Input
Amino acid sequence: MNSLKKAKGFWSTMAVVVIFSVVTQFLINGGTLNSFYVNALFSIGINIILAASLHLIIGITGQFSIGHAGFLAVGAYASAIVTMKLGLPFPVAIIAAGLAAAIAGLIIGIPTLRLRGDYLAIATLGFGEIVRIVFLNFDYVGGASGMTVSHLTTWPWLIACVAITIVVIVNFTNSTHGRACISIRENEIAADAMGINTTFYKVMAFVIGAFFAGVAGALHAHNFYIIQPTNFGFLKSFDILILVVIGGLGSMSGSVIAAILLTIISTFLSNYPEVRMVIYSLVLIVMMLFRPQGLMGTKEITSFLKIGKSAKGGVHHDGKNTTA
Output
C-alpha cells in the first residue's frame, strides 16, 4: 500500500511537471515571455541542477566541497568541444559533459575524499582553480578569450535534465546507498565501524554529483553563447554552495526553493548594478540570522503534507477522530 501511494505521488508530480512544461513552452513560443524572463527561467533550471548535485555531496554525504565550479567548467568545455569541434548532436554533448565531469570527480575524489572538513574543502577548492587555470592556458578552447558556442539549450532539454536530476538524486537518497551516505554524514567513524565502506560511498556521491554538475555545464555553455575560464572561478563555487546552505543542508526541496528564490533576486537586482551585491548580501545575512538552519532545515515538502494529513486524525473511535 505504501509503495502504491509513493507511485501515485510520483506520477502525479510528473503530470504536473509535464503540464507546467507544455504551458511554459507555449508561452515562450507565443512571445508572452520575453528574452529577459526566458533567460531568468533558464538560469533557474541550471541552478536547480547545480544545487541538487551539490546537495548530494554536502547535504546527504556531509562532504564539504567548494570545487563544484570545476565540474561545471569541465562539463561546459567538454560539451562545447563535442558540438563545436566535433560537430556532434547536442544530446551527445550533454552525456559527454556529464561523463567528463564524472571522470574528473572520480580522479579528484579517490585521493581527496580520505580527507575531512576544512582539509577536504581546501583540496576541492584547489581542484576548481586547477581546472580554471588549465582552460585559461588551453588554446584549443580559446584560452583566456573564451570559446564561442551555438545556442542549443532549449526549454524541453532543460526541464528534462532538471526532472531527471531530481528523480535520480531523490531515489538514490532513499535507497540503501543513500542511507549509507547519510550514516557517513551523521557519524563517519560509527558508519565505518558498522562495516560501511565510507570511502566508496563518498566517492560514489562525489561522482554522481559531478556528473550532474557537468550536465548543468553543458546547458550553461549552450545557453550563453560564449564560455570563458573567468566564469568558473571559486566565487562560482561559493554561489552554488550558498544555494544549498540557504535551502537547508539535507533538504532537496530546500535546495530547489533556494535556487529559484536566489536566482530571481539576483536577476531582478541586475538592474541595479551599484547596489546589487550589497542587497544580495544583506538578504543572505538576514536569512542566516533568523533562519540559520536554512529554509527547510533537513525536512522536505512532503513531510509537511504528511503532518497536515496526520493532524486530521487517525482511526475512528466512538465516532471521533483520534490523532496518530
The chain has 13 helices and four strands.
